[in-house]
Fold these 2 entries.
Entry 1:
Amino acid sequence: MIQGPCFQILLLLGVVAVAAADRRPSFSYSAPRASSEESGPAQYNFNWAVNDDSSENDFGHQETRDNDNTKGSYSVQLPDGRLQTVTYYVDGDSGYIADVKYVGEARYPDSDEVRSYTPPRRQYN
């Protein structure tokens, strides 16, 4: 049997290792704390648009919200040449109500045009 200061140090290190291994991190989860600032009803208004002739990109979005009432529209230039516009509203719990309209007539290239089509190069800044 080992005796003396080496045994005592070895025994002490063993006890410390067991105590350190028994310490597990503890986590607790709770409900979010209430903010001290009062927040009012949701209200906002935004509008943005892109119209780039070189890439033929034409799209945009606008929306307004007052509490539970939201109204807006968005549009996009489709590959077939038409402009698609979606006008929508949400009135409380009524759900999303949309009206979709198209402006223009769909154009499809001849098969020879499709083979020779080279998409425009886009530059990202």
Note: The radius of gyration is 33 Å.
Entry 2:
Amino acid sequence: MKRNVQVLLLLFTGVGLLHIALLTDLYLRYVRPGLRPALIASGVVLILLGAVGAARDGFPFNRPRPDGGHGPGHDRGDGDGHGHGDGPRIAWLLYVPALTILFLAPPALGSYTASRDEAKPPSAGDSLFPALPARGVVDMSLNDFSSRAVWDTSRTLKGHTVRLTGFVTPGRDGIWYVSRLAISCCAADAQVRKVRVHGAAAPPADAWVSVTGTWHPTGELGTDGASPALDADTVARVPAPKDPYNDTVVTRR
């Protein structure tokens, strides 16, 4: 029985990885796009290992051996009064994550994570911030806006209408933020980017929105006391992106 659990777990996990990485874009909820080949390779290897294990044990599993044995999954008595050792029943719980990936992929990180992690001020960088377009609404990433709102002593945000896209993170006393999570490798190393929104009611938590407005200066620029904030003119619901951790701006026309 224990051997059966191991073999089936390998097969289910391998199929689950191929499902999210090869047939869908669900893997983007957990890792960067560049890791897709590694996930596909891992899924193939797990399926091959499971197939080899199944072939070695025969079908059905634990069929009697020619020498009268019962195979590796059938233990002999070990002195505790039981002649059969099926392994701990809790081993079946190992199927939960494998089947979850296959049939019910968990969502990407959202407001729960963002509300519990403090947004670290982005680096000031080594060069001056370039000027923004003189006319029209400027689409900006939350990282770029946050950097300028905290470190840009030249105030290049002043007088410009900007548009930020992210998910809603509720705060205390009616405060809310438009947020993004950035990853270096996978969701485990996610870093929070949050911009406080003034002048608009908060949409539901985790809703993806596009917020158009103007910079709301907060704190002393060039210090950690400054924080990114926006006076909202409009807040529009938008579909969640396929890659929720990619904050790259796509210019609108």
Note: Strands lie at 138-139, 161-170, 176-182, 191-198, 208-215, 229-237.
